[in-house]
Amino acid sequence: MYPNPIQEFIARFASLPSIGPRQASRLAFHLLKKSTGELQDYANVILALHQDLNVCAECFYVSGGKDKNCEICNDPERDQSVICVVEKETDTAAIEKTGRFKGLYHILGGTISKLEPESYKKLRVKELFERIKTSQKEKTPVKEAILALNPTPEGDMTALYLERVLKATGVKITRLGRGLPSGADMEFADEETLGEALDSRKEMKTK
Amino acid sequence: MYPNPIQEFIARFASLPSIGPRQASRLAFHLLKKSTGELQDYANVILALHQDLNVCAECFYVSGGKDKNCEICNDPERDQSVICVVEKETDTAAIEKTGRFKGLYHILGGTISKLEPESYKKLRVKELFERIKTSQKEKTPVKEAILALNPTPEGDMTALYLERVLKATGVKITRLGRGLPSGADMEFADEETLGEALDSRKEMKTK
Predict the structure, then answer these.
(1) Which residue in A12, A62, A89 is closest to B45 by CB distance?
(2) Where are the membrane-spanning stretches (chains A, B) (predicted)?
């Protein structure tokens, strides 16, 4: 129905996460109207992803072209004794945006999936274990691993698995607090969330 | 927060329709994990949009690289006496998918926007008018213009404007029928739709 170049564009872009054929065809017609120079810019930013980026050898976050480690791992100001374990790179970015965490990260690379029993093998759990073990022989050992995983069955399953594996290292293992999200309307919270909020209630300290 | 190549990718892709910064960063990390050859493929399908595509000189749909006209305009089997006027290229594709229309198209290139009073100037109305006029001097004159515009205030406003302009050509002007969408649940139809469905009711012909 569309000429070949558009069909090929759609076939390729429709396979990207949360882009379907309909969205891909909208993109094709949108891009079609740009100048050749602009199309080249789009192509260039895609190609630059491989030319100038590496995976951090320490935490598996992204690092700029020549660096073996990422900016966070390279920062001497960061607290080397806490590692925040996240599923993916964008989770690191989300936590960085809060400005409340000054430790290091470990990108797990996914969670355990119920449908794929072998999925735990793909996670960077061994690397995390070794990293903690190695740190314990150095002057700033890791003392706490924060499991910053999604509050979903998969996240919970992964946390339990990590807890079991990391037990042998002796570090303190914590999970993110659960409760009502900031700005939420209590009336519309699901029972699970409201239950967790009750369980993790805090005493107010009036002076 | 992210290394430069990712920031630049996000800045560029976040400006595309229905992709925001969050979606763009997800795409960046997804693409990052592909092979260099695959990234090249993505870049190539973008660049091919300019190398191998033209805008049809007749209806403004897309045509393959060397053709002046698109496949539809070039098809001698199509009914030259009916022109279906649509807002954008993907609307042509949507109508083609029904398999119920065998005439030609005219891509208007947008609708009149309330917020931009001058937006009617950008539409290919003059081109449509000239096209109909020219056809009337040839052996297969255009007899009907179907205004296949969205059933929205903008679509309605554009249809009224087109009706006024095209009146001088003497062609029959029609709009798509309105009513309940196939597969819909009457209970959840809005009043406007239900009203239109009532107005455009058809007599059932039992034999």
Answers:
(1) A12
(2) none
